[in-house]
Amino acid sequence: MTPSQLLQEFEALAHRLEIPISREDLMGGSGGLCTIRGEKRIILDYRLDVPTQVDLLTQAFSQLPLDDIFIKPSIRERIDGFDETGI
Fold it and tell me: How many beta carbons lie within 10 A of that of residue 53, not counting itself?
């Protein structure tokens, strides 16, 4: 899958899980998964290129309990293969 296709798949997964993704001016920060008023959200800096957005979304989803959710194998493999030292 291309980085753009991966990004679309992650955005679709976030939509299915009702986790909003927003792109904001993080003034040099990159973003990630957070909880605001009890709601999980993913916030990304709007300047990030597509591959970096995919990496951050991979990291964000690796922090969630996804065992009982169907995820396309290519996306599941990417999430399950994530480790904190890199992708």
Answer: 24
CA–CA gap between residue 64 and residue 83 (Å, rounded) = 14
Q: Which pLDDT tens digit goes with each residue over 19-63? A: 999 999 999 899 999 999 999 999 999 999 999 999 999 999 999
Q: What is the pLDDT of residues 60-84, one digit of tens each?
A: 999 999 999 999 999 999 999 987 6
Contact residues for 60 (Cβ-Cβ < 8 A; gap 6+): 32, 33, 42
Segments making up each domain of the chain, as ranges: 3-80
Amino acid at position 67, single letter: D
Among 58, 52, 56, residue whose Cα is nearest residue 43:
56
